[in-house]
Amino acid sequence: MNVWNHANPQLKDLVTYKPGKPIEELARERGMQPGDIIKMASNENPLGPSPKAVAAMTEALSQAHIYPDGFGFKLRDAIAKKFDVGIGQVVLGNGSNEIIEFIGHAFLKPGDNIVTAEHAFVVYKLMATLFGAETIEVPDPGFVHDLDAMLAAITPETKELFIANPNNPTGTMVSMEALERFMDQVPDHVVVVIDEAYYEFVPEPPDTMKFVREGRNVILLRTFSKIQGLAGLRIGYGIGPEELIGVLHKTRQPFNANSIAQAGAVAGLLDNDHQETTRRITDEGRTYFQTEFERLGLKYVPSFANFVLVHVGDGDAIFQKMLDKGVIVRAMAEYKLPEWVRISVGTMEQNRRCIATLEQVL
């Protein structure tokens, strides 16, 4: 039997998402010790999770035999209070990626399309393809979302439009002024998804919550994976008008956010000291990287996030050579950027080793 005679046809040519190479995998492949490898590929928090989150998760482990709160009341309530919205305006996801899937379930069908920037997070296109929808990729001069061009790309079949701000993998941003102009013009039949996975790294991020308060057709995506250091728990959230979030809840599986993740996220959300320390280390590391790239004569994209996109000539080759020396970065060919790599900010010790290795292999 040829399974493709029965499987959904749009899956056949779908290229699956490639996560950053795990330390353990590289250690197995190259016969290295995991402790000798540093990972600068996945925009993770080099400090790890908040100690308060670790304590909360440890306590929650004793109740691991009990199903989690399927409605995530404590975490949704904490998020709602932090951002001054109603609890009915918050939905939890197994990572914010799952909420992208909820939005697809809610609004996409074959023949529809989504609009996104050419060099935006590749998962938007992957999810659209899963639902049989097409993706309109709009050129982004200077790697910045061109909101006017994205508006012009909207068709009657457009159901979703994604703005990643700051954007992954470029680290660029659009301003609040540009977002306001855009939101005033976007048609009512389009759900605008503003992906703010990295917004906590921005000193004065756009007040996108304003669009939620105004009842616009918008969903904000946020995550505990980055500044909170809880990437391994897969926990994220969406905020939007209550009616829109209510639709997403209908697409959500029961118990999609596990109890350990919920407990850690509540504690981490309230640990401002850990977030401030992470911000400071990120600012220092990002500045260091960009200064070193200038010293090395490498073109880079000034970043607002916890990573920097840098032009190295042959991204895959540099990626492989750095792997040989126990340093994992992220090649960018899947983003149609074969001459670039993305490097995440680590501790200063890791940052210095990464730059020394990069200089050695160039």
TrEMBL record:
It is an enzyme of class 2 (transferase). It catalyses: L-histidinol phosphate + 2-oxoglutarate = 3-(imidazol-4-yl)-2-oxopropyl phosphate + L-glutamate. Pfam families: Aminotran_1_2. Residues 36-356 form the Aminotransferase class I/classII large domain. The keyword Flavoprotein does not apply. Belongs to the class-II pyridoxal-phosphate-dependent aminotransferase family. Histidinol-phosphate aminotransferase subfamily. This is Histidinol-phosphate aminotransferase. It comes from Phragmitibacter flavus. The lineage of its organism: Bacteria, Pseudomonadati, Verrucomicrobiota, Verrucomicrobiia, Verrucomicrobiales.
